[in-house]
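Appendix B, Record 12. Input sequence as logged:
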Amino acid sequence: MAAVATQRAPALPRPSVKPIIEHISVQKQTPSAVEFDPKVHLAYTPPPQIVMMKDIGYSEDTGVSPVAVSQPFQLFSSKAIEEMRKEIFHPKVMEKCSFSSNIAACQLRGYAKEHAPFTYEAWNNKETLALISNIAGVELVPEFDYEIAHINMSVKTDEQTKEELAAINKQKRFFADDEGIAGCPWEDDKPIVGWHTDSYPFVCVLMMSDCTNMVGGETALRTANGEILKVRGPQEGCAVILQGRYITHQALRALGAKERITAVTSFRPKSALLKDDSVLTTVRPISDLSELYYDFAEYRLEIMAERIQNARKEMNARRKRKKFDTLGHKKFLEESIAFLEHMDNEIVEDSKVIPGYIEEVDIPDVVVSAQEDARPTKRARVG
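Logged structural output:
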């Protein structure tokens, strides 16, 4: 892995919300009636590398899998991306499902099941899930419907894009270029999403923009010892899989491209017997709380029901040949109480949620080098 860069490049113009609104207006399209077909719309090629948790200093049992992050790999075809883009730019989606916060200017959430049938089926298709699970090292399913294809959007004006390209051409020596993981060199890098850990175990981040002229757009990761590394941004139709609940990271600003649009689908283990550390910290302020809580409560209660059923089967099987396992059953009850208390803590009263505001925590910025003292900057609250 490359060391963190020690030089700093000049600050670049920062994006605003206005070009995003204008871009959306231009892009508005009517979705077609195309149905997702894995033979047509999947274009899978394996990732060239999968980074393990132990490779970045974490123990393999930190999360739900020993896998930390994949390098970018082709997942969907250009035809699939075309259909997905039609759905996200539909007027109803932009009107009903757009959110913004103190760490991200424009996001779309909770639209897939009702307004984007192609996107919804693409992420629920058994062949898609098999590919993602194989890379993640554990069988995964979408966290729940509300978290399918969450959209992060960053758009600049033509003038801003030209200024960035000019700056890039003058300062090429500042850009690290290695085997996909490098230091983060740009001073005043404005992230499209600030430092955070995800609310859910795994994410699959899909690039939905043409990245031909793009520099940057990587995902910056903090290793267990505090070093800051970045995973190269994917090309259109490519994806990165990250165990983001357990690794602090941020999506860096894309330079030299007019837009950077990504679709982030969250995943959890299919097995109800694996741990579930999912929280709602980073999504509660940017969601329709009623829909979010319905989905969250339903899947958690399903897990609880499966665990109770499993415990009952084990108890009945034991009864035929052994004494009651008092200590084992009390441990199950203790874990169940903790599980339900966790649910209670995450379902916060509506009146206590500030829309668009995610509490911040001090985390060293991406420009800090390995040789410099870490100077903390305010970023999104972890976990």
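Residues 17-275+353-380 form a domain with the Jelly Rolls fold (CATH 2.60.120.620).
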